[in-house]
Design a protein that fits this description.
Shape: globular
Order of helices and strands: HHEEEEEEEHEEEHEHH
Structural class: alpha+beta
Helix content: 40-55%
Low-confidence stretches: 1-11, 33-48
Mean pLDDT: 79
Number of helices: 6
Distance between the termini: 23 Å
Radius of gyration: 22 Å
Strand content: 15-25%
Length: about 190
C-alpha cells in the first residue's frame, strides 16, 4: 500500500510543480486548475458517506472486513476475529479462528456481488449478498460478536449461537473488539 501512496505523492508533486509555475507565454497562474484537481481528487478518495452504496465483487480481508472495489469496509455492528487470531476449542486445542471466520465469510459470498451501504462510521457498512445481511449471518454462525449498542437486532442471533455453542462459542476466545483495542493502544504507545 505504501508503494502506491509514494507513487501517487510523486505524481502529485510533479503535477503541482507544473501547474504552479506560470506559463511564460501568457503570464497566467495555473493555481485555480490545481485547486480544482485537488478538490476533485480529495472527493474521489474521501471515505464513503452515510447512505452511499458500494456494489461489486468483494475480497475478504478477515471475518469482519471486506474490500469492495478500491474501498475497505468493516461489517457494521460486529466484531470478528482478525485473520491471525487463534482460539481454543472445547478440548482446549488451539485453532485459527480468525482464518476460519474469514474462510466462512468468503464461502458465504462465493462469487456473488456484494452491496455495502455505508453507516457513516469510519468505514463501517451494512453489506449484503442478495437480501442476506453478512454481519447478521456471521453473528448467527457464532463467527462474530454483535455490538449490542450499534446493532441490537443481532443480539438474538448471538444468543442462539451461544446456546448452540456455534463457532467461537464452542470454546475459549478473546473478544475481538477488546483485542483490536489493545493492539491500537499498543501501537499508540509505541509511536509516542
Amino acid at each position: 500500500m505504501s508503494l502506491y501512496v509514494g507513487i501517487l505523492l510523486a505524481c502529485a508533486a510533479g503535477l503541482a510543480g507544473t501547474l504552479l509555475c506560470p506559463d511564460d507565454r501568457s503570464g497566467r497562474s495555473r493555481l485555480p486548475l490545481l485547486a480544482a484537481l485537488l478538490i476533485g481528487g480529495l472527493s474521489w478518495h474521501a471515505p464513503a458517506r452515510a447512505g452511499e452504496i458500494l456494489r461489486g465483487p468483494a475480497q475478504v480481508i478477515d471475518g469482519g472486513t471486506l474490500r469492495v472495489g478500491a474501498r475497505q469496509v468493516s461489517l457494521f455492528g460486529i466484531a470478528a476475529p482478525e485473520a491471525d487470531a487463534t482460539c481454543a476449542d472445547a478440548q482446549d486445542r488451539s485453532y485459527p479462528c480468525g482464518r476460519d471466520a474469514a474462510r466462512a465469510l468468503a464461502d458465504r459470498i462465493g462469487g456473488a456481488a456484494v452491496a455495502c451501504e455505508s453507516r457513516g462510521e469510519a468505514g463501517a457498512a451494512l453489506c449484503r449478498v442478495g437480501e442476506a445481511d453478512l454481519g447478521a449471518w456471521m453473528v448467527a454462525q457464532g463467527l462474530a460478536l454483535p455490538d449490542r449498542d450499534l446493532a441490537p437486532d443481532y443480539a438474538p442471533a448471538a444468543d442462539r449461537a451461544w446456546g448452540r455453542r456455534l463457532g467461537l462459542w464452542s470454546g475459549v476466545f478473546q473478544d475481538p473488539a477488546e483485542r483490536r483495542g489493545r493492539r491500537a493502544a499498543a501501537a499508540l504507545g509505541a509511536a509516542g
